[in-house]
Amino acid sequence: MKKAKLFGAGALALVAALTLAACGNNSKTDGSDAKSGSDAAGSVEKPAAIITDTGGVDDRSFNQSAWEGLQAWGKTHDLSKDHGFSYFQSSNESDYAPNIDTAIAAGYQTIFGVGYKLTAAIVDASAQNPDANFVIIDDVPVDADGNEKIADNVSAATFMDNENSYLVGLAAAYTTETNVVGFIGGVEGTVIDRFQAGFEAGVADGAKALGKDVEVKIQYAGDFNAPDKGKTIAQGMYAANADIIFHASGATGNGLLQEAKSINESGDKKVWVIGVDRDQSDEGSYKDPESGKDANFVLTSTVKGVGTVVEDLAEKANTGEFPGGQHIAYDLKSEAISITDGQLSDDVLKAVNEAKDKIVAGDIKVPEAPEK
Length: 372
Hints:
alpha/beta, 19% strand, single chain, eight-stranded parallel β-sheet, 2 domains, Rossmann fold, six-stranded mixed β-sheet
C-alpha cells in the first residue's frame, strides 16, 4: 500500500472547465449486454463502468456526477454508452455485489464503486478479480485495526467535504434573516460527518464574526434515497423558522428541493436550499409569485469533482497508469472541491473567498467530525 496523498492542482486543471449534461436513465443493470468499445480506447474493448449507489444515475447529486464524468471521458474517446462504457444501477444494497459481478462478466476492465457503501463489495471483488481495476469513491478500505489497507488493483478517492461545507456554513450565517438554519444528512457516518462538521464550524465562525447567534438544526433521514423523508424533515425545519437548509443526503434531498419550491411559489416566505456534490441551481428555478419574474432558491452548492475523478482515473487506467494501492485525497487546494457563487451577495462572496484562502494556507483548520 502506498501512502495517502493530496491530488495536485495541475492534474485537475480541467475541473473548472468541465461542463456536463445530466442523464435520466433508470434501468437497473443497463450495461449488462454492452458491446465492445472502439479502437480509440486502445486494446481495452470495455474500459470502464460505474456501479451506482441506491440513488441512481439521475439522483441530481453524487451518482449523477459520476455518470456525467464517465460520459465525458467516453466522448473524448469517441465511445458511446454500451459501446465501451456503461453503468449498473443499484436499487438496494443487495445489488452491489451482483452488479459488480455482471460488469466483470461483461468484460469491463475498470469498475467504479460510487459511494462508501460499496466498499466491502469492491474489496471482495478486487480480491477475486486481480486483473481488473477497481475504484472506491468516498471511502478507504481499512484493516481490523483501522489502518488503511488498499489492494494493488484498487484506488481509493476521498474528498475533504468539511472544507467546502465550512464555506457554505459561513455563507448561511451571513445570509440568514431568521438566525435559524438546518442540515439534513442521509446516513450518519464518517463521510457525512465531514459535511455536518464543516457546516456547523462555518456557521459558528460566521455568526461570531457578525456578532450574532445562529441556531443549526440537525436531522438525519437514515437513507440516501428517500425524497419523502427529505420533504418531511424540510417541512419541519422551515416551520421551525429555518430559512436556509443544507443537505448532504443524495436523492433524499430532492424532497427538500420540492418543499422549498412549494414554499417559495406560495409567496408565504422566502426560503433557501444549499445544494450538494454538484451545482443544483437548475432545481431551484421558480416564478416569483409577486413579481412574476424568474427567481432561484438555491443559495449555493458544494461541488466535488466526482465526475472529474471518474474521468481522470478512467483515463489513467486506459493508459496503463492506474494508481493502484493509493489513497488520493481531494481538497480545496487541489480545486477538486468548491462552492458555487449561486445567489450569494458580493459581501458574502468576499467573506467566503477570504475564508477559502485561509483554509488553503492552513490558517483555518476545519474539523472533520462533529462535536459530540
